[in-house]
Amino acid sequence: MNRRLTGLFDTDDISVEDQDLLEYGQDWTRFYKPDPSAVVFPRNAQQVRDLVELARKDHLGLVPSGGRTGMSGGACAIDKEIVVSFQKMNAIMEFDRDDATLTVEPGVVTANLQQRAWDEGLFYPVDFGSSGSSYIGGNIATNAGGIKVLRYGMTRNWVAGLKVVTGNGDLLELNGGLVKNNTGYDLRHLFVGSEGTLGFIVEATMKLTGQPLPASVVLLAVPNMSDCLKILQVFRKGLTLNAFEFFSDNAMEKVLSVSEFSRPIDTESPYYVLLEFERSDKTALERAEASFAKCLKQGLLVDGIIASSEQQNKQLWQYRERITESITSRTPYKNDIAVRPSQVPSFLRAIEQVTSRYFPEFEIVWFGHIGDGNLHLNILRPEDWDVSSFKTACDELNHHILDLVSTFKGSVSAEHGIGLLKKAYLPYTRSEREIDLLRNLKQVFDPDSIMNPGKLI
Amino acid sequence: MNRRLTGLFDTDDISVEDQDLLEYGQDWTRFYKPDPSAVVFPRNAQQVRDLVELARKDHLGLVPSGGRTGMSGGACAIDKEIVVSFQKMNAIMEFDRDDATLTVEPGVVTANLQQRAWDEGLFYPVDFGSSGSSYIGGNIATNAGGIKVLRYGMTRNWVAGLKVVTGNGDLLELNGGLVKNNTGYDLRHLFVGSEGTLGFIVEATMKLTGQPLPASVVLLAVPNMSDCLKILQVFRKGLTLNAFEFFSDNAMEKVLSVSEFSRPIDTESPYYVLLEFERSDKTALERAEASFAKCLKQGLLVDGIIASSEQQNKQLWQYRERITESITSRTPYKNDIAVRPSQVPSFLRAIEQVTSRYFPEFEIVWFGHIGDGNLHLNILRPEDWDVSSFKTACDELNHHILDLVSTFKGSVSAEHGIGLLKKAYLPYTRSEREIDLLRNLKQVFDPDSIMNPGKLI
């Protein structure tokens, strides 16, 4: 097989080194043993097409690989597949000021795209922790979300055009940057979030927007979870919100325990809301203060603080951002789930009830993007439990949690995709018939099942 | 067949009256002779499923029918199909304040949805001339656009969840109002704009947003078409633009000739730009005036007017809105095309060149949503030509125009869909291979080709 690959790629662009197979054969998921047969680094779309032709003939699986920051095993090669790394297709090809778009190769690091947009006086708003290493191709293939979804939406909203190579070997040009185009099924949207199972992205045209105005951060102490949504309504009325996050009091305590931070608010409270609003004009701060006063008067919150400087903005964000780090030693069971925002309070209660019924000794740390209905559930291992018993218990608990997601008509993967990790979860929120249809759709674009085989469906 | 239909529907919900067959068998397109075999009015999703089962068994075509305001023959029954009117599925089912969504049946008139949102203190922003009669189901099936796309995007952006009955008879619940959901291919987006060829919408959850702030309208006299985009850049910088329209001087003259309006701007100019900006705060007007001054100084415009009252806003809009009416007597050849906004000036020049090369006596009236790249091309019949020779000439010219759309990688249908009318145009902007794939996709959801047969592909 390697001989045939060398017909398509320069020697520099193929590797079978153990180190490379290990490194390129997996993403951030650490449950799967990487076992690809080779890694290739195409330089252009034609090479990708030629590779697909070869793969069809020889029944080889192809696994796309970007910045390898995925959390669901969507970019793991565990069964002798060929890893197709887009590392060498990393050119920013065209900036169009009139259209406010950047056309890029899939291997462009998200942060580089963001930087280039900024240098042009514009803004690419989809942002998350792994922006410094994730690739835009992977962002699109997984429809990445992140910390500003409330304001700007997911990656899907920013894809103006795509070039893809399908499992049929076709090179398709989808939508080509048009704002308005109603000429049949929008295949662009089918490819966004398809995790490389229909085809590989070889070029993308991304929309940009204006640079954001300065923002201020507000931290609020909230006694009742269900009031968070009411607070959202009040603040949303007069202000543009960039983020609306929540976390539980024990999350706050965990952060305090690993940092030298003091409590930002004296009054203790079961929940905290962290929001960021744009200072769109001189009166925005006054409007924020009025919203604060209104919530206080209605008993929705008991205390709070509005940052008065960029430095204090950053400081307040730290209480939210350092939660993950603060609980790592407790080997948390994590889940990335979503329900409709209106369902968050009762969904959260239901999960707490089911957890305490089966495992009263388990502690739950909550945080998440409540404005999007996206919750990060973290269940901590009791200090006196070993990791393996904890994992077994969590696997048991998991079924009950997924049952609840199903009852609440939520999502088993809000922003991390399905990959290998969550394939078994799919039937909790998509019907058997719908999953059949997904399989049939894949068949249309990838009849030989060579594109990221075994992932998603 | 009618006996079998009566097994599924009450007598009141079936009609074979000539008058009904004629009325429900067509949309606003007037090129096709309606010839359905019956019209049915389902009351719920189950009746739609039963009907699909019957249609599969008996090989009957089903044509969905909403407000019948389509412009491409997407809702015409010309071959003994059964028309499925959603007129009686017109309930607004649920308003969710926390999610800011309205869940509705497909037969809800767009204006009723808009009104209900407004009554709840919110806003449904997709708006167009036919809002008073079009149905939301049809809006979604055709991904309707309209006059505020620059600000709010097309219908697609506002669909939070769909229930559809496919040609397989499956009832699918797609996305269910979730903001974040990355669990496989997003079928919701596949159904939006599919013109009833994959399945029929039986319920939709639509997102709402905050009510808009008061706006002001600006009319500008612009000597050079290519400067319109520069003007857009300048005004966009400090202001939120609801609309950015343009029209040519002869469009202005035609409006003046049918109205008692006087010229709104003394200075004559080949092009006019009409823009609307939100008065987001007290300084918005000053920012608009500064943008105006900047454009004037740069020579991008030669004159202009900023409306100083709501009444004047409406008056200025009239110069744009009455264009269609003012040219009707000239039986214009119309086209709804789009290119990337940056391509508008050269595309427009190219069309003018090709038209004057073949038919120098033809007059072109331009108007459109330039901010979206969507142009409405209107070629007027010379007064001394009869309609039939003009039509023949336009059919000839049409090929050259579509060739240009193809060269510019534009869209042959920006906002009106394909239906019956533009099927032959599809190959100008979508490759043969892509059209094959569209057919294969249809096959997955509608293996017996009973759902709106003959439309789109």
Structural commentary:
- The structure is a homodimer of 457-residue chains.
- Chain A has 15 helices and 18 strands.
- The first copy, chain A, is α+β, with helices and mostly antiparallel strands.
- Chain A folds into four domains: 2-85, Uridine Diphospho-n-acetylenolpyruvylglucosamine Reductase, domain 2 (2-Layer Sandwich), CATH 3.30.43; 92-210, 2-Layer Sandwich (Uridine Diphospho-n-acetylenolpyruvylglucosamine Reductase, domain 3), CATH 3.30.465.10; 215-324, Alpha-Beta Plaits; 331-428, Alpha-Beta Plaits.
- In chain A, the strands form four sheets. In chain A, strands 15-12-14-13-17-18-16 form a seven-stranded antiparallel β-sheet, sandwiched between helices. Chain A has a five-stranded antiparallel β-sheet with strand order 5-6-10-8-9.
- In chain A, strand 5 (92-96) and strand 6 (101-104) form a beta hairpin.
- The longest helix of chain A is centred in the last third of the chain and has 21 residues, at 387-407.
- The radius of gyration of chain A is 23 Å and the shape is globular.
- The two termini of chain A are 27 Å apart.
- The model of chain A has no long low-confidence stretch (mean pLDDT 95).
